[in-house]
Amino acid sequence: MMRQEMSPLLHAAQPLIDLAIAEDIGPGDATSEAILAADAVLTGQIVAKSAGVIAGLPVAEAVFRRVHPDIEFTACVDDGQEVVPGELVAEVSGPGRSLLAAERIALNFLQRMSGIATLTRRFVDAVACTSAAILDTRKTLPGYRVLDKYAVRMGGGMNHRKSLYDMILIKDNHIAAAGGIIPAVARARAARPDLPIEVEVRNLDELRQVLSITPPVERIMLDNMGLEEIHLAVSITAGRVPLEVSGNVTLEGVGEVAATGVDYISVGALTHSVKALDLSMEVGQAEEAVAPDLSSRVAEIKSMLGKRLVILGHHYQRDEVIACADFRGDSLKLARDATQTDAEFIVFCGVHFMAETAAILAKPGQHVLIPDATAGCYLADTATLEAVQAAWDILEAVFGDADAEFTPVTYVNSSAALKAFCGRHNGVVCTSGNATQVLRWALTQRPRVFFFPDQHLGRNTAKQMGIPLNEMLLWDVHHPPGPAAIRQARVILWPGACNVHQRFRPEHVTAVREQFPGVRVIVHPECKMEVVDLADDAGSTAHIIRQVEAAPPGTRWAIGTESRLVHRLQRDHPEQLIVSLADVPPFCRTMGQITLPNLVHVLEALAGGELVNEVLVDAETAHWARIALERMLELG
Ligand code: 13P
Ligand code: SF4
User: Fold this and answer.
1) What are the backbone dihedrals phi and psi of residue 477, each rounded to the nearest 5 degrees, phi first?
2) Which of 470, 498, 526 is the last residue of a domain?
3) Which candidate, 92, 220, 223, 349, has a CA 20 to 30 Å from the CA of 601?
4) What is the pLDDT of residues 239-295, one digit of tens each?
5) Ligand closest to CA 350
6) pTM above 0.85, yes or no
7) Is residue 451 domain-shared with residue 536, that is, in the same domain?
8) Which secondary structure element, helix H or strand E, spans residue 33, and what is its range?
9) Is residue 287 in a domain?
10) Residue 238, Ramachandran bin (φ over 0: left; ψ between -120 and 50: alpha; else beta)
11) Ligand number with the minimum distance to the CA of 499
12) H/E element holding 328?
């Protein structure tokens, strides 16, 4: 399933596991040996106590097996997957004394690695709308370098050099010893022409010196520079050499640093200040571990409410949740399904904007409920009505009448307020399933399009329609473009992006083609243009499913979309070879917030005559949003 480099990880972990066992268990676990019968069999469940990203499951499994080879370890999630509090991470069962003796060591590894992955993911998410990558450093726990760096990758970060031997990094002390930047680079190049060279600079003078070197060095590190200086460095460098920012970058400040246009941001804190993810192991007798049958309860309530209830589920939902859905689909199909049902209660298993769309389209007397009202969408959150209105005001100032010049188009992944904005301004909504038809229509109405919030869907669609890149303008909220640039644009793109789909990179396409010759690469159009350009095909979630279903047995697929869907396709189509395009498959955290327990909670309340988590949209907003949505549904 996952294409990870298990062996180097386990190779590095093995001596650490032996050390930990010697340190913690030594000659034996006095307590368990005194209390448990030698033949007692136990089962344990490793459960998340707080939200985070899991990393280190292979190491945890290796710990249990090293302590007793008969312990069975079953991972319930993948490394790299986001978990919510209470979520089952893994199950273990086997000889009780050994299981208890191994528990702490396994958790120590898993909690530390998951803590690193969690913090990394927060940084990666904070820069998701930019092209900057998050890098680790060598500030790792001595001996744990491979494990720490693996965890960074599971968080979606990239690794900097492994050690001192695999890259030249010229710092101030080297420069002083060599008598200057130029001689330092010359010496390094002469001694090790096989290694990439990075040079650390502390000011713009040093930057200019490094930029004067030919051939150029592979990377320049801007050490401890302020935001203003970084901006200047980016414009001086003008893309000639990749730039890395290093030094005290915080989670709060990383977004602004990334927005300057630098290529890499290295963060020592990812591995030097680890906060372990809160995980625990709950142990019971093997026979007692019977989970309450929530699926049966859903079925009971469904039959009790009959036609009064319909459950809709998006393809990115958890397996146990989607199994309860009466209709499953991508966002376009679910929007249509919502208009076609007469059920009194629509329970929407998806993220908030999807349930909100159903609520806008609902008939009088219908109620739309969502199992977790906080299940938002990272992409939708990148555009607020206020920010879009401020941009529109600028367009108004440039053209005099923005309404005559622009058709506003909002991707369905947006708030009701933005859909209403489009309704008010003769605009329209689109989904990934109909973006081309919608954009084509929009350009027949007025000469230009203002597209939000997903820059990638907008760019990919416009490009595929033959609109050149120089007629597309990426809006900058903090530094809005000037009138000349605005007048040249046919399509203005909001700078939003999905943090899940942005994690697919062009090098993933290259790597998967090398690993699986003949593989067809198919991606969601929320991926970056560089990825879509390299792929064989791009399309909505439903399009991806249709292509896989229609392909002959033996077809090889690398799929660039959310991983729950990819895993489901793997299981449903064993006759084909299906892998995730990325080495660390990305999961949508907010889609995963809908769980069987919170679905049952909403249904139980319904069965008792109570509406919980009803999604409501005020009448004025719903009126205008419905106009933009219905225009879309008419178009295709
Ligand atoms: P679809 O329109 O393909 O369902 O995509 C919705 C979504 O949120 C993708 O990330
Ligand atoms: Fe939003 Fe991305 Fe999740 Fe889709 S995958 S719901 S766009 S965050």
Assistant:
1) -65, -40
2) 498
3) 92
4) 999 999 999 899 999 999 999 999 999 999 999 999 999 999 999 765 544 456 899
5) 2
6) yes
7) no
8) helix 30-35
9) no
10) left
11) 2
12) strand 327-329
